[in-house]
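Board notes (copied after class):
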Amino acid sequence: MKTNRFLAFIPSVLLVIFLLPQVIYAERLSIKVGAYANAPKIFQDDQGHIAGFWPDLIADIAEKENWQIEYVWGTWSEGLDRLKSGEIAMMPDVAVTESRKAQYTFSQEAVLLSWSRLYVHEDSPCFDSIFNLNNKKIAVLRDSVNYEGPGGIREFVRSFDINCTFVEYESYVDAFSAVKNNLAYGCVANRNFGDKYEKQYDLKQTTLLFQPIVVNFAFPQQSSFTPLLLPTIDKNIKSLKSETDSIYYQLLEKYFETAIAEKKLVVFPVWAKQLMVFLGLVVLVSVVTVIIYRVQLGKSRRKIRQNYAQLLEQERKYRTLLDNQKEAVFLHKLKPEGFSCFSEVNASAVERYGYSRSEFLQISSVDISVPGDVKKHADPSDRRKLLEQGQLIFETTHIKKSGEQFPVEISTTLVELQGEKYLLSTVRDITERKKAEEFQRIKSIQQQTLAELGQEALHGIDLSTLFSKTTLKLAAVLNVDYTKILQKLPDQNELLLIAGVGWQEWLVGRACVPADANSQAGYALTTEQPIVVKDLQTESRFGGSQLLVDHDVVSGLSVIIGSYKDPWGVLGVHSTHSREFTDDDVNFVQSVANLLAEVIKRKQAEARRQELETQLCQKYKMEAVGLMAGGIAHDFNNNLAIILGNVELSQRKISAQDEIAPHLRNAQVAIFRARDLVRQILTYSRRGVQNFQPVNLPLVISETLNLLRATIPTTVEIETDIAHSHAMINADSTQIQEVLINLCNNAVHAMDGQGTLKIGLESLNVEQTEIPVQYGVAPGQFAKLSIQDSGSGMTPEIMEKIFDPFFTTKEVGEGTGMGLAVVHGIIKSHSGFARVNSHPGRGSIFEIYFPVIAAPKLGIIPTIHDLPKGNERILFVDDEEMLTNIWSQMLSDHGYQVTTKTSSTKALEMFKKNPQQFDLVITDQTMPELSGKDLIKKLLSIRPDLPTILCPGYSNKINEEEAEKLGIKAFCMKPLDMVELVQITRKVLHGAKQ
């Protein structure tokens, strides 16, 4: 009996002996595990303890590995956040998806296969189709894979084009409660939880079972615990799954299928007990020896584990800091001579250079630098400077693995690591900076060249010398082999080489190039645009002229000198190797050509002026005004349009009785007159084409006097007698205004700024005998405009010459003598005549007669409040941003959907993507890169039925007739008031619909 008791006691002693060292000396590793409500896999029991499949499985592994488990309870979303931040060391029951692999590290061994199911209220009608979910609210677990993951309910319903609303909850319990309380139609949950608790929440299963997905243990990516826990978990799971009677399968039966079967007791025979005693005595002797070894081993293991955790944390911080650097970072040991292989590189270096990290660790700075720079930066003086100052910044050129070279700026710092000196280099790619610097350098040279040529031209240089200097400077600035200036011969069939660089000397002044489309220069004349050729041998638009072929020309650029309608010649640059001429090159050469054109025009004007002398002076001045107008009209009219738009928008925001309303109306009138004045200046440049229409003469006089009052001295009293006149004449209102301004200014000058100025208007019948002989005017009803001053008057001799060009009684610098000559010309062009009555000391009176016409029938003039509206989509293109904003607001206020672009090329790109997105395009003419005319051509080539409106400030490239031939629906000169803009827009859109 005593023997049996002793034998029974031996196993207990042995067990205590084996476990005692571990209990005493082994450090239990504390592991924080995330937990959330998801019975039966994981839950809190009635006593608040964490229970379920996962906790039981973890408890078994923890017991084997001597771990101490601490559960951190929370919601599913909170658990994922804690896992990502490293607050917990692992979390069970996490589905493996591609997106989560980027955030967490997963165990390799799969633990469970999870299905998702839809549950609805038990009183809900039978669920027979996925389409039952249309327009329903579905409760889901926030951040769960069966909600947002691949194959989840959100992706599932989208594939069937089903519209339903998802309501997110922090737990399945909350989601099931929402369905129970009719806050949602149904709930999506994993099948293990749902099948267990559906009856408790008055729910029922549906036939919608989907998304089988593997669930594993998940770990933080950046944690010192992960390298320790991950292999241990995989080892234990793999071992448990290999044994059919392990706790893993017992837990599956316990929590998911049936109860664990009862185990039968096994009774040991007597001989087995005796054997156990013998073995126990043998083992007892061995254990004593092992205890000491285990004590030391436990201490060493604890120390190693602590050191390893610290190293992992330091490496994580170091790697995170290094990889978060935007620039490439390199670390290598400092050698007395040469360069050592890289010891470390960051992610930016790997991405930028194309080498893997392992490849980088096999190479040095020599392998990524151009040979010349390696020798330069290995100079001993640089090493000495680095050692003295601890830092060195320099620029060099690096080479990627692909062979591509790029400029870099390197900031190298001397650092010490573990007693050794290292070089820590931050490398910045300065490609864009170098491009910008080179662009600015070239731009500066080009601008300086233009300025120098402009100065030469201003100093009266002769054309031959100017041509020679121009070709030399072009060759130097653009680094080309040949430059040329070709002049179009009178027969229009050939272009003569009159200046150039690189050609055989005897060819200049003799060689000719065809002026038709068969040569590059001729093609430029024909197409009216700059022509760029990259390779003349593969050029299909035209053949190379004999001049270019004989000189082995490959690439070239040709632009027109002068206007496209009447070109003077062609300016060209050429190279014997393939050359890409950029847009900046084209603009520079075109600017030089424009400068030459201006000088040529000036020289031609000077020659003609010398030939025609005084009698043609007026004509040349009008041409000069026209030339000036062509240069400023576009910007001036754009500014007028901006001012007019702001005035009209301001008028809409105030009442007619507001005290500033009259001032805004006066400003509006002044803008219209300024617009008409610009058009009149342009009329001069078009050789006398006038804009005649019925004009209310009293209204024009009143508006002009309103403008004049601010410029006439207050010492001059103005008296008017036009209130009861109703004269209607056929006239150009701007020219009538010019007549009145000229005569009033002359009257003020005659009175020396002090006296009385009288303006009168009356209608009367004029007989033939009352009309001066020099005027071929028929008698009839006339409107007489009289301007009377109280000045010094004129003698008969002076009165005979006052309408002669360039005759003036004013001091030098005070007048040109053209004012009354212009007035006389305007009067004659309006079929009128003039009378002058003056006596010295008694003042003068000018009487101007204009034939009266019947008043036209006037329709109802719309106001800004009753203009037609629309809802069409309009694309408005203008390089003046303020104008696009104002016109966009005007059109938007009348219902239109307006998209604005200040770049014609970007507008074209947007239109190409969706040609049907706009019902109308309104564009300016003069814009950088692509003119309005060319933009409309390209738009119509894509969509021929597109309605378009061209609104130039000024353009000599296109007129109304040409616009109509191109298919442009309306041609309107700026500035337009709101009424004109809205009416024209509506008219064009209505016409397009018809």
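Comment from the instructor: Residues 16 and 154 are 57 Å apart (CA to CA). DSSP finds 31 helices and 34 strands in the chain.
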